[in-house]
């Protein structure tokens, strides 16, 4: 599945750019921007690997994830004046990352023997924990706890992947369907401003 | 010790309810409320298992902890209007969770060969780190760093358990005495509004 | 290298004091001050050990790190009125800790088979993640993301150590040179108020 690796790297760069952008907006220095880029791009997968016991985590086993994240963060740091023009493509690549990270995380959870709920949680965590860490380090309540269908799209995709694994569908095709579902929900939610119900008093 | 398992599950549900409640008060959406419930109930034990090397952590080995946490968080999300009536019983169940988590964590630290201080730290962490994560994710300075005898009750209970293990008391009885001590201190602290000294300038 | 162990313990005490001081300033109670001291002193090395797979982490294998941290935090809690007089020596010992933690972390990363970038990241993390956790728990955006040459000094020292390992220099001497470089940059940055460039709009 070389397509999966390609999408994984695209998503990594997009996530790193979103983290670096958050640092630039808060007027952090170069180091802070790099850290936010790295944490956003690799934090979710790292937490997943710690929990399932694949140590050292993926990004320390394959440093290309680190180099790509640093390159994307540097590009944002030095090119941030032209970044408005890039906002729409970035949201698109971010959605690709979301879908890819969910199926990688869910699949890896299943491979390491987790139950269905645990595997879906690993998928959601892979896709969202990096962004939550970014927000925490930026001094904000994590966006995924407050807004949009972001995390719910991941939940649906993870659950779909676990379900499809029990059908005759080939694993790569199941992964593709689940990833495209996440990406589609995410892009539609952005387009039509969907959101989840909130508790009200 | 089936009683211990029962108390563990009761405490898990109470902790999840307190996390979910924190999310409801901040008007988080359903996903945020579920995450806060799960993190509060399982965060402490998960951190403990990462540190002692029992991987995957307890809640990924036994998904019942996840299901109970989700059920409790859903109950709070949909029933929060009637929650005021539940406040007192919840504090009581929360105290039970506190005592149970301390002795489970301390005991597991000893089983995994930690020294006495490390084992007590694992006990305190099991009982308090979930709540600290809940506060961090809610954008607040963790309550345990600021207020009440909460964590100190855990310290006393953990230290008591380590001490009682060197006496002829049977391990289950030692655990019971230590857990009841934590629960009693916690309930008395709530009742009489005890607090620790603070540094003053 | 008994000198390294000595510097390590000095740095641990200095980091614990800085964490405890942060708690005292926020009027936390005794427990909060102890937690901030412990987390600041041992958080970075603990995160490193989780990531490279040396579990349980150093401070649970050698509890002396915990006892020293607690002693330093207690000293700050009870002696904080006289702490202004100690501010300059503390900054000096803190710089020693910074240099020592960087070379310990980077060296340990290499020993555990990480690549050069991963090893440098472990060094930087060992020296800075404890302080970042201290700031998060205090409700602040981590200082290292916003200010000063702190983390950059660590980056330089870690990269220098990885480079020097490819020269005929003996490992202890390489470590000494790298550590002194970090300490010198840090002290000069403090003295002359250096800072990194920031992105500007």
Protein architecture, described:
3 copies of one chain form a homotrimer. With 201 residues, chain A is mainly alpha-helical. Chain A has one domain. Helices cover 75% and strands 0% of the residues of chain A. The first copy, chain A, is built from 8 helices and no strands. Chain A has helices at residues 2-25, 30-52, 58-61, 64-79, 87-111, 116-137, 150-164, 171-192. In chain A, helix 2 (30-52) runs antiparallel to helix 6. The mean pLDDT of chain A is 90. Chains in contact: A-B, A-C, B-C. Chains A and B meet through helix 2, helix 6 and helix 7 of A and helix 2 and helix 4 of B.
In short:
By secondary structure, the first copy, chain A, is mostly helical. Chain A contains eight helices and no strands. Chain A has one domain (2-192).
Mean pLDDT of chain A: 90
Q: What is the overall shape of chain A?
A: globular
- Major sheet attributes of chain A: none
Considering DSSP H and I runs of 4 or more, what fraction of the residues of chain A is helical?
over 70%
Class derived from helix and strand content of chain A: mainly alpha
What's the quaternary structure here? homotrimer
Amino- and carboxy-terminal Cα gap of chain A = 49 Å
Q: Give the strand content of chain A.
A: under 5%
Q: Can you tell me the number of structural domains of chain A?
A: 1
């Amino acid at each position: 599945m070389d397509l999966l690796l390609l999408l994984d790297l695209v998503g990594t760069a997009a996530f790193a750019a979103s983290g670096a952008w958050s640092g630039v907006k808060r007027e952090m220095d170069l180091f802070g921007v790099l850290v936010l880029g790295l944490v956003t791009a690799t934090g979710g997968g790292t937490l997943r690997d710690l929990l399932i016991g694949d140590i050292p985590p993926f990004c320390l086993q394959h440093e290309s994830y680190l180099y790509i994240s640093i390159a994307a963060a540097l590009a944002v740091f030095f090119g941030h004046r032209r970044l408005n023009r890039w906002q729409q493509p970035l949201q698109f690549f971010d959605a690709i990352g979301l879908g890819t990270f969910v199926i990688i995380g869910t699949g890896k959870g299943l491979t390491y023997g987790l139950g269905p709920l645990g595997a879906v949680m690993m998928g959601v965590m892979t896709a969202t924990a990096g962004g939550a860490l970014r927000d925490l380090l930026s001094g904000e309540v994590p966006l995924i706890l407050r807004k949009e269908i972001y995390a719910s799209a991941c939940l649906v995709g993870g659950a779909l992947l676990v379900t499809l694994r029990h059908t005759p569908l080939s694993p790569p095709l199941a992964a593709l369907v689940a990833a495209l579902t996440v990406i589609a929900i995410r892009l539609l939610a952005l387009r039509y401003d969907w959101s989840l119900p909130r508790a009200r008093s």
